[in-house]
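Milestone 3.1: sequence recovery, worked example.
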């Protein structure tokens, strides 16, 4: 999920997560999982607030246009 910079901190991410979790539960899914850049502390905190837990780390998983290599965290939520 991505939230435009000017809309961050206004509850948009929370609203999207509420909708996604509700949608998944209504359909009987047992788990949601996601990947998030390991340095994105605000997003990680948001996911933790909704009950997601860290399940792993993908080291240097994405190469950015600058050549930098970024880690991602794998997070999951059992429904």
């Amino acid at each position: 999920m991505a939230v435009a910079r000017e809309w961050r901190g206004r509850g948009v991410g929370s609203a999207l997560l509420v909708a996604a979790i509700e949608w998944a539960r209504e359909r009987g899914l047992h788990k949601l999982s996601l990947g998030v850049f390991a340095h994105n502390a605000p997003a990680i905190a948001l996911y933790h607030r909704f009950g997601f837990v860290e399940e792993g780390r993908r080291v240097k998983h994405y190469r950015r246009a600058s050549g930098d290599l970024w880690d991602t965290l794998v997070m999951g939520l059992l429904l």
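The two ends are 19 Å apart (CA to CA). The longest strand covers residues 53-63.
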